[in-house]
Amino acid sequence: MSGALAGRSAVVTGASRGIGLATSRSLSGEGARVLMLARGAKELRERSADIGAAAVALPCDVSDRAGVAVAAQHIAAELGGAPDILVNNAGLFILGRIDALSQDDFAASLDVNLIAPFLLIRAFLPAMRERGDGHIVTVGSIADRQIFPENAAYAASKFGLRGMHEVMRAELRGTGIRTTLVSPGPTDTPLWNSMETGRTGLPPRTAMLSAEATADAILYAVTRPATVNVDELRLTRA
């Protein structure tokens, strides 16, 4: 297959819908072989089949630490090592006042939004270091540096995710491994299907970014020359 990413491999989490699905389509469209991770096996397999033979469905609940370890082993076996591109996109968004949030909901937000990216980075970074090549993309949020009411769990996880990206960037500079933080503003994805956006002061879905806009930003970052690192991209609706 031809394209800017021909011969390259990518892993995308949260890949069955929203930004993850749009990113999987975008990377595959440029020739990458994409391993798509998501919790819902049936939907994931349907979406990967829609993309075509270059997309591989790998059901995985990233909140399950043992499941992430098993998925990482499968990926390494499938690819013969670490992927060329890792896109940590899967996210959990639970609203609630800090005194009303349950411990389980707070912990679940950290598990999906922060711990899972850490585990996948830790799984693949040694092999990336050994070969001197790789690109780790972290999908953040406007909430990784701006706070909103009822956002205690999400903000804690996304601020932590941005901090981890910045440390990783400092540690990996000059190694050949690139790291990019892509932080979109409110984005029209199925995440909003079960909640009223008005309660948080967010714009209507028609005024949000599209998932494809973030996927385009990710594609831009990973297709720059090997000597160019896009440290951070912050996206808002024009």
Structural description of this entry:
This protein has one domain (9-235): Rossmann fold (3-Layer(aba) Sandwich), CATH 3.40.50.720. The protein is 42% helix and 18% strand. With 238 residues, it is α/β, with parallel strands linked by helices. The chain is globular. It starts with 8 loop residues before the first strand and ends with a strand. The strands form 2 sheets. A 7-stranded parallel β-sheet has the order 3-2-1-4-5-6-9, with helices on both faces. Helix 1 (18-29) crosses helix 6 (211-222), helix 3 (65-79) packs parallel to helix 4 (103-131) and helix 4 packs parallel to helix 5 (152-172).
Q: In percent, how much strand structure appears in the residues? A: 15-25%
Topology, number of strands: 9
Shape: globular
Averaged pLDDT: 94
CATH topology: Rossmann fold
Largest sheet: 7 strands, parallel
Helix content: 40-55%
The CA-CA distance between the termini, in Å, is 34 Å
Computed CA radius of gyration, to the nearest angstrom = 17 Å
String of helices and strands: EHEHEHEHEHEEEHE
Total of helices: 6
